[in-house]
Each structure stands twice: as C-alpha cells, then as structure tokens.
Amino acid sequence: MRTKLLLASAAFAAGLTTAAPAGSLTVSEWLKSVNDRLEVADPIIGEVQWAYSTNVTDETAAAQDAASIEYSKLPLAILSELAEGGYEAKATTFDEKRLISLLKAGSITPKSNATQAVLAKTLSDMSSVYASGKFEGKDLDELSGILAESRDYEELKKVYLGWREVVGRAEKPLYEKFVKATNEGARDNGYADTGAAWRDGYDMTPEDFMAMMSKALGQVQPLYEQLHCYAKAKLSDLYGKEKIMTADGTIPAHVFGNMWSQDWGNIESILRPYPDVQAVDVTEELVKQGYDAVKMHRLSEEFYTSLGMEPMPESFWTKSMLVKPADGRTVECHASAWDFYNGDVRIKMCTRINHEDLMTVHHEQGHIYYDLQYKDQPVPYRTGASDFFHEAIGDTMQLSVLVPKHLKEVGLITKELTDGLEQTINFQMAVALDKIVSMPWTYLLDQWRWDVYSGKTTPDMYQKAYWDLIEKHQGLSRPAPSTAEDFDAGAKYHVPANTPYIRYFGANMLQFQFHAALCKAAGHTGPLHECSIYKNKAAGAQFKKMLAMGRSKTWQEAMSVGTGGMYDSVDGTAVVDYFAPLMTFLKEFNAKSGVKCGWTQAGTTPTGPPTTTTSTPGPTPTKCHRKKAAKQH
Ligand code: X8Z
Ligand code: ZN
User: Fold this and answer.
1) How many domains does the chain have?
2) Which of 67, 87, 99, 350 is the right S-S partner for 333, CB 3.0 to 4.6 Å?
3) Is residue 40 part of a domain?
4) Based on the domain organization, do 70 and 216 belong to the same domain?
5) Which of 352, 289, 297, 296 minimizes the C-alpha distance to 324?
6) How many Å lie between the centroid of ligand 1 and the Cα of residue 203?
7) What span, in angstroms and rounded, lies between the C-alpha atoms of 222 and 280?
C-alpha cells in the first residue's frame, strides 16, 4: 500500500510540472496542456481518495491529506497561468471561453500552504469521525437498520439521538475550524465566502437560480403538507396521539424509518393506503429470489442497456466495492459513484438487499452512465450540465423502474396486478414517500449551510438554525431538547463530507420533467405514472444525446436537448401533474380524518386552530457549485 501511494505521489508531481512558460502558448495549446495535466492528476488523486474511502485508517487519511495538498497546486497553477498568459482576453471561440470560465468558476483553493493543510486535515478528520462513528457498538448501517425496522418508539428515539450524540457533537469543533479555512480559500479567489463560490456557475445569476428553486418548492409544498397530515394520522394510530400530535403540529422526527426523515419509504407498510392491495416494495421478493448486491447492480445495468447504453466496462465489476467488506475494516458506506477520468468508473456502496437500496443502485449507476457518455469531452466538460443534472439521471430511471407493470415484467412483483385506483394510490404513495418527502429536506440543508458560510449563523447558533429550518420546511421536531454543543447537521454525511446539497432538490424537480419528456419521446400516452421507458430506444437516444454533452453547453441548452425541446427551466408543475391522483386521495382522507393539518413555524406560538404553513421558502439567500478535485457523486 505504502509503495503504491509513493509511486502515485511521484506520478502526481510529474503531472504537475509539465507547464510551459506563461504566455508562450496559444489559448488552444494552453487549454490542451491544462487538459493533459488534469488527465494525469485526476486518476491519481482519485486512487488515493478511493484507498481512503474503502479503508479508513490513519495511514490512508494521511496519504489523502498529502495528496490533496499536492493536488491543490494544480488549480492554483492553472489560475495563475491563466492570469499571466492573459488567456481569458485572448480566447475567441465559444469553447475557449466556456472552458476558461469553467476553470475559474467556484475555485476555492486557499493560497496559503498552512490553510491548505488545515483544510485537508479537518476534512479527513470529519470524514473519519463520520465513517467510524458508533453508538452502543453499532455503526450507521446497523443503526439505520433499526430505524427502518423497529416500531418501538423509545428504541427509535434512543437510536436517533444516539447517532447525533456520538457523531454530531464530535464534528462540531472540526467543522468550525473547517468553515474558517474554506472561507479563507473562497476569499483568496475573490468570493465573499464558500457559499458564494458554490452558487457561482449555474449559468444564471445566483438570485435567479434561487428564485427558480424557491418557486419550485412553493409548487410542491402543498403536496408535502397533505402527506405530512396523512402521516400524522397514521402514526398516531400506531404510536398514540399523545406521542405524535404535538402542540405546534410538528411530528417527532425519529419515527419515519430514516435517520434524517428524508425518505419515508421504510415505513411504507404503515402508511400504505390500501393494505390489502398490491404494495410497491420489492424487499420481500429480492430476498426470496436470492438477490445479492451484484445481481441488483446487474438488474440496474440491464435497465440502462435496454435504452441503448453500453454495458458497464468489465473493470467496473472488478474494481467497485459493492458490499460492506466482511473483514471488519472501516469504510465510508455512504453510496458514491466515481469517475477516474480514464474510462475507469466505480461504485462504492454497502449494498443491502432491499427496495431502498435497489433504488440507490439505479441512482448511482445514473452517475456512472453520465460519466461514460461524456468521457470523450475535455476534462472541464466531463461533469453534469449542472450538479443537479448528475443527481437526476438515475432518479429519472427510478420513475420508470418503480412502475408496477415494470416490476412485474422483471419478476419483482409476482402477484396479479389490477388496474384499479387503489393500486394506483398505493403506488403513488410509495413514490411520494421517497420523492415528495425529500423535497423540503433537500431544499433546506444548504439554506442552513450558506448562512453558516456567510457568518450569518455563528457556531453557537448552528443547532438552533438547523432545527428552525427543519421545523419550518419539514414540520418535524427534535424528539428531545438540545444545547449549542449539539450539532445535528454534522450527523448528516454531506456536511462533514462538504458535498453541496441543493443539487438534490434540483434533481427532485428535474427527474419528473425528464420523465415526462422521455415518456413523450417513447410515444407513451396516458398518465405519466403509468409510463416506463424500459427498452425504448427512442427515449434512450434522446437522453444519451444530452448525457454526451456533459457540461459543454449551459444546463438550459442541455435540458432542451434531453427533453426534445419540452423544457429549459426547473419547474414543479411536472411533479404536481404526476401526483394529481394522490393529491385528491390525500385531501379527501385528511378532510375526513379530523386531524388538524399544518404546523406553526419555529419559535411561534400557535394561535387558534393550527394553520397550514404557508411554506414560503424564506428569504432568498443564494445557491451552489461543484467540487473540482476527484469526481464523486
Ligand atoms: O447522497 C446521495 C446519493 C449519493 S449522490 C446516495 N443522495 C442524497 C442523500 O442520501 O442524502 C441521494 C438522495 C439524497
Ligand atoms: Zn448521487
């Protein structure tokens, strides 16, 4: 291992020292030299990060820190050559200008070596705390299993709080240090703070981007509120009104089957509207039919190839980590897809044999198929048209995969299907428990983070600001009080990993728009929730065309290509249309149930009957970007 890392480091240095004297090259020669250097350096940093993520030790962490300090010389060198060579002013073609603007956008590498070292170290320390966190001897995977399966209110509460107690609190001092260092890097590159850097590069002004996202949230929030009200009734039946019906109308956050209440699919059996009608949860069938991780990934691959995509390269199957290693080493279990920029693509995932993970497999492969389609583009274009595109590809496929007729076709539903409304409602509920539920959550996390980066939220307010947003947007409450020492945001992967999160909200919207457009390309008529594009080459070809563009054009142009001209903007109408039957069902159910819908916002006392929250997505801070180094999603 050590020798391998030393070799990597030597190769790295070689990749970093091939720059020609500034100004001696034409713009296109210089861009080629940038591309050549990125093609050398990116696979190397990728390997070092992979070695860490699949075996978290002090040694792999130290190697990763050293490599990332080494790697950061590259973007700094590129930016200084750019300035010294005057290449921006000399660029004439569309591609020269776009490539240069992409090289510049969002760069936050600090100029000071000391700060780079702090950044590298706090990032890997935060990741190690997260990856090795255990409560009562159980890691996150095991704790998540309890949250998914237990129906014991007190046990759920203990596990929910325990993970935060152990990991959140330990992350807090590291995160404070990290925020200072990353903001210094942002300022070195002309940004007010890291949040501002993240929001740069969406092919539109940060204000317009935020207005677009905030409008979309407003469109879908009424649906979430109905779902919230419905869940309140069903969970009260199970756990008792005294536990679920709080004075302010929020629901305790620990009873939704998920550590962050961001996907309620694991309590689908509690929330299933018609318990005697066909369910859309294939866990039982997967287990019964002896599925293992590889078979689940093969099933997903077959979906993509049915659209006309190539199978995964053989190295995907030999180099990926598809199951949690049995040898007891610590790994980062949070699923991710990796592009090594040389045709080598991998997934790292502790795949469990259940419905939720079958969906995640399709999500991760969406990243990989995007990587494979744009692999011949220059390196700066080898990424999503925007980061929310990258997150939307696999999710778009999920919308076809989940269709009961499709699941029947691939043998994961064995009972006869009916065409009745009850089956439709069960099905829509299952989809909504994943996709509608995640909308307020994916919107709010970066609202919190941008305020932290900008300094509006100071460390003593980290916890309060986080929960204020959860109460406001999700209508959920912490099952026990906390103090400023608590840091529940740090107990969510993307915060210590420093992965931007608004991308998942964008993807939540986009996938329904892509689905509508691909179904049209497939010649589907009838409701969109009945459409599966499985085996449809016309839909596949249209999507492929967009994927192959990578980031070579604006995301609006890419969207227009991928949707056959149907859309060039993010909008929640497709979501609302898709779920029309469920919305009707929920409104009728909630009107009859007698449960008071809605909740009051954090810090306010309910007056009179609880009102439905207006869910105005709040003042409009701004948005985000992508990480430059190794490409993981
Ligand atoms: O992090 C992920 C993927 C990798 S990009 C597994 N997701 C978000 C999360 O888990 O919080 C997918 C859904 C949202
Ligand atoms: Zn992803």
Assistant:
1) 2
2) 350
3) yes
4) no
5) 352
6) 24
7) 24
Three-class secondary structure of residue 379 per DSSP: helix
Atom of ligand 1 nearest to the CA of 334: 6
Range of the domain at 524: 208-275+290-302+310-621
Residues 424 and 567 in one domain: yes
Q: Can you give the pLDDT at residue 632?
A: 65
| Residue that finishes a domain, picked among 83, 104, 125 | 104
Those residues whose C-beta lies under 8 Å from the C-beta of residue 516, and which sit 6 or more positions away, are 528, 563, 566, 574, 577, 578
3-state DSSP assignment of residue 336: strand
> Hey, which residues does 252 pair with through a beta bridge?
477
Distance CA 591, CA 586 (A): 8
Ligand approaching nearest to the C-alpha of 392: 2
Q: Residue 409: inside a domain, yes or no?
A: yes
| Residues in contact with 116: Cβ distance below 8 Å, sequence separation at least 6, in sequence order | 68, 69, 72, 109, 110, 185
| Residue in 446, 452, 436 with CA at minimum distance from that of residue 501 | 446
Which residue type occupies 465?
Answer: A
Distance 125 CA to ligand 2 centre (A): 23
Question: Does residue 364 fall inside a structural domain?
Answer: yes
Looking at the annotation, which residues are catalytic? 334-335, 363-364, 367, 391, 494, 504
Pocket test for ligand 1, best of 338, 364, 504, 633 (most atoms within 8 A of CB): 504
Q: Are residues 76 and 213 in the same domain?
A: no
The tokens of 371 are what? 């990587």
Predicted local distance difference test score (pLDDT) of residue 279? 85
Residue from 300, 391, 398, 443 whose mutation best tests the ligand 1 pocket (most atoms within 8 A of CB): 391
| HEC profile of 498-532 | CCCCHHHHHHHHHHHHHHHHHHHHCCCCCCHHHCC
Please give the average pLDDT of every successive group of 10 residues along the chain, which has 633 residues.
50 59 88 96 97 98 96 94 96 98 92 96 97 98 97 98 98 98 97 95 93 98 98 98 96 98 97 92 96 98 98 98 96 98 97 97 98 98 98 98 96 90 96 98 98 98 98 98 97 98 98 98 97 98 98 98 98 98 98 95 45 34 33 63
Ligand 2 centroid–CA 561 distance in Å is: 22
**Domain stops at, among 50, 73, 104:** 104
Q: Which residues line ligand 1 (CB under 6 A)?
A: 262, 335-336, 360, 363, 504, 633
The reply to whether 151 falls in a domain is no
Measured distance CA(513)–CA(571) in Å, rounded: 8
- The overall pTM is greater than 0.90: yes
Say whether both 327 and 448 belong to one domain.
yes
Instruction: Map residue 138 onto helix, strand or coil.
Output: strand
